[in-house]
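subagent[fold] <- orchestrator: predict structure for attached chain, return tokens only, no commentary.
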Amino acid sequence: MKIPGIYAIYYCNVEDFDIGNTDIIKNIHNSDKIITSAVWNIVDKVGFPAISEDMVVQNGQNVYSVDLSWFSLEPVMLSKKVFRIEDVNGRNFIIGTKDKPYAVFSRHFSEAGPTQKKGYECKVKYKNTHGLIEVIV
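subagent[fold] -> orchestrator:
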């Protein structure tokens, strides 16, 4: 799936993420949208976040990998979260669900240098039988 550009990144605790019946995720198709009711917190970001989604077939099943990265000036720690991105067209997508496997968050502090900014390089990696899922918030 191509995302034209990321306007905002949000997160919520996995315990607070609600879509009703979680079996809907197992049967979702690329054109389906789900409705979510969660309290979303916005992520502090600098510059333009990057996202990629790849699919491979493993043991006869589609497996999607989603990678999201951004730069932050704040020392955020976002483990065990569900992430939502809003693209520049106002469409929203989730990365992860409240069920395992969770989206994996990591960050790395970067000192200012001749070619670098001072701050945190943040990354979210997610791998499952579904990739980005469009949601209505």
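orchestrator: received. Logging for downstream: The mean pLDDT is 85. The chain has one helix and ten strands.
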